[in-house]
Structure formats: structure tokens, C-alpha cells
Amino acid sequence: MSIPSRSAPSLGAAVVALVSIYIVSQFLRNSVGVIAPDLAAELGLSAAEIGTLSSAFFLAFAAVQLPLGIALDRFGPRRCLVVCTGIAIVGAILFASATSPGGLIVARALLGVGASASLVAPLSVYAWRFPPERFATLAGLQIGLGTIGTLIATAPLAFSTAAIGWRGSFLGVAAVTAVIGIAVAVTVKDDGAVPHGQRETLGESVSGLLEVLRTPSIGRVFIMSMVVYSSFTLIVGLWGGPYLTHVYGYDLEQRGSFLLIPVLAQIIGSLLWGPMDRLTGSHKLPVLIGAGATTAALAYLAIVGTVTPPAALVAWFAAFGFLCAFGVVLIGHGKALFPLHLVGRALTVLNIGSMGGVFLMQIVSGFVIGLFPTAPDGAYALDAYRLVFGLQAAFILLGSLVYLGARDPAPGSAKGSPAPIA
Questions:
Q1: What is the C-alpha separation between 4 and 19, in angstroms, rounded?
Q2: How crowded is the C-beta side of 303, counted as CA atoms within 13 Å?
Q3: Residue whose C-alpha is closest to residue 190's, from 352, 344, 337, 61
Q4: CB neighbour class for 213 (10 Å; exposed up to 12, middle 13-18, buried from 19)
Q5: For residues 308 and 84, is the Cβ–Cβ distance under 8 A?
Q6: 231, CA 20 to 30 Å: which among 19, 295, 318, 385?
């Protein structure tokens, strides 16, 4: 699909803004992993409270997806993104000023609401403005470049925390988010992106949501969505930092550098996994291969407990980050099940699975680690980490078994056509 030259610069600026707001979202959702030991030391958080703190983001994120899906198809991505960005700014400021576990949890919940549209809104734009066979590739581009935010939540956040503290770091994030929000408001256009939704009544919008929920195979893709992203965030966004400190003795900057590795690997992986549906002629095949390999990686860590020498640990983190990137193909599978006028609602339903899975896994993992005695210096037991990693491997395996029965539309098939480029 060729893009008229007159529209290319404006479209390019919009894509930059859309990727940038997703970078912020990725930073916010994964920012607890590196600073978790600092939060625990300063505010006296237990393992269960750390798990609850991190998961509050994902619970709030998932809770607003259904109304967000209706809003996307009725009012367009630009308005949704601007409102959500404002909420994220408030959440970042409150997080930076929190003085109690409860304050941190409330702020994290606001951050979750604020970041809730950062992926599905851009994906809605891509679904309407590009041919369907390019969707998974564009999703891979969005997620791959957006993962820079996860990268910033590793070593850069560790260095920033060492220099100005985690509070100062989050105030800086609030300022950057405000600038990006202005860019979104200026560059992203809703005209032509949701022609069906703009004519729908509220009743029709709700009816469309029910149609999404009744679509065959949506439940199977939903279950698979629950275990994909939760695997990556379990390591990078929550327990990877404490694991590196408690088991290997790495300090703040060292664990930040280690967690940088899977993030870089996922950026590369997202770009390479994206077109795999077109190359293989299937969505399910690459998803099942990626899920099986991720299961094996987590099961290995659960069995061996510690990976030595350091070079082998580096290799494990790199492989894990690359393998987890197969989720971009699953997004394309979910989108392929629906006509274009239901894309916003469909993507947000699947996003509930993705973020709801993270919430459940982080709550469960915090509870599991809390069952084991802690060392005098506050370190969690190695066996606690091994059990958590093993449970996640089992969850992926179970999700894959459910997903096996999902209908697999041919890559590039669609029940509608992209809207013309404005």
C-alpha cells in the first residue's frame, strides 16, 4: 500500500509519537524490578507487598480495557491517548511523593490506567491505515521500539536512582510524559480511522463488544495472552532484580545492567518474530514454537537454580528475552479473528488477558516467595525463586494446550479493508 507523499511526513510524526507513548508505558510497567530492593528498604515492604505493588499497575490496566475498547471504536485513539496520558502524569507525580505502601499502590494503579491505551490505540490506527498482512509486522515494530522503555527501566533507571533517587527519577518521567502527550495531541488524527464507530450508538457499541466475546476461538487466544507477557514481566519487571541480588550478590547498577540484556534481546526479537506469520503461513505455528522454547528456558532455571559462570547467565537472559517476543504474532492472530470495525474492542479484550495474566502471576509469585523464610539480611530463598520460575513454565504449557484448538485464519486475511490514508 503506497502512502501519498503529502501524508508521509504527518503520518511519520504520528508513528513517532505513538511509539514514544508506548515507550513510557513499557518503562512504567517494568520499573519496579530494578528499584524493588530500594523500595523495600526505604518503606519496609514485604515480598507480598512488592508483588501487590507491581501487580496493581496491571490490575488497573486490565480493569479499564472494556470501556477503553468501546471508547476507541467510538471516539478514536487520539482522545483516548490524551486523556490516559494526563492520568499517567498524575500517577507518576503521586508515585514520586508516596510515603507509604498504600500510597505507592494507589499511584501504581493510576499509572496502569494512564498506560492502558498506549498499545491498543496505536494498533487500532495500524489496523485501519495499513493492509492486514502488514499488521503483525507493524505490531512487532511498535512493540520492538516501544521496548526501549523497558530498557530504560533497567540500567538507566538504576543509574538515575543512584544519582537522584527513585523519587527524582519519577518526577523526570512525569515531565517527559507531558511532552510526549502534547506530541500525540498534535500529530495523531482520528479522521478516517474509525468510520464505523463514529456512527454507532452506545447500545451498538456494547452489542459489538458482546459480538467480540462470542467470537469462536477468542477464549483460547485470551488464555494464551495471559501467559505470554506475564513471563517476561515476571523476570524483567519484578523478580529478576531481587533474584540477581539475593542469589548472586549483584548491586543496583549490576542488576540493572543484567536486566538490560533480555530487553535488548526482546527488541531484536520483536522485529524478527513480527513477520513470522507471513513466512510460515500460520499464526499458531510460531506462537507454539515460541511458547515451547520459553517454557523450556524457565523450566531450566527452575531446575538448576543458579546459572554459572556469569557468561552462561548472560546467555540465559538473552535467550529468554528473545524467545518471549513471540507474543507479537499472537497479537496478529487475535486481530485476524475480527472485522475492522471491532478491532478496538477486540484488542482491548485480549489486552485484559495479557495484563490480567501479569496481575495474577505477580500476586501468586509474591505469595509463593513469602511462604519461604527470609535470610537475616532480607534475602529471599533460592528455592522460592525456583518454585516461581517452575510455576510460570507450567502456566505457559497449560496455556499452550488450550491454544492448540484455536482457529487460525490465514495471515493477511481480514473481514474488512483498511481505511484510506488521510
A1: 22
A2: 8
A3: 344
A4: middle
A5: no
A6: 19
The DSSP line for 270-321 is HHHHTTHHHHHT-SHHHHHHHHHHHHHHHHHHHHH-S--SHHHHHHHHHHHH
In a domain, 229, yes or no: yes
The owner of cell 520483536 is 270
Instruction: Name the residue range of residue 252's domain.
Output: 11-403
At 353-399, the pLDDT tens digits run 888 898 889 889 988 998 999 888 888 999 999 999 999 999 999 99
Beta-carbon contacts of 178 under 8 Å, excluding residues fewer than 6 positions away, are 85, 89
Assess if residue 26 is contained within a domain: yes
- Nearest residue to 379 (alpha-carbon basis) of 104, 153, 55, 41: 41
C-alpha cell at 153: 527501566
> Rounded to an integer, what distance in angstroms lies between the CA atom of residue 138 and that of residue 119?
12
**In 70-153, at which residue ranges do the beta strands (DSSP E only) sit?**
none
Number of separate domains in the chain = 1
Alpha-carbon gap, residue 238 to 211, rounded angstroms: 36
Domain containing residue 397: CATH number: 1.20.1250.20
pTM for the full predicted model: 0.74
Dist. CA 283–CA 276, nearest whole Å: 8
- CA–CA dist 7, 252 (Å, integer): 46
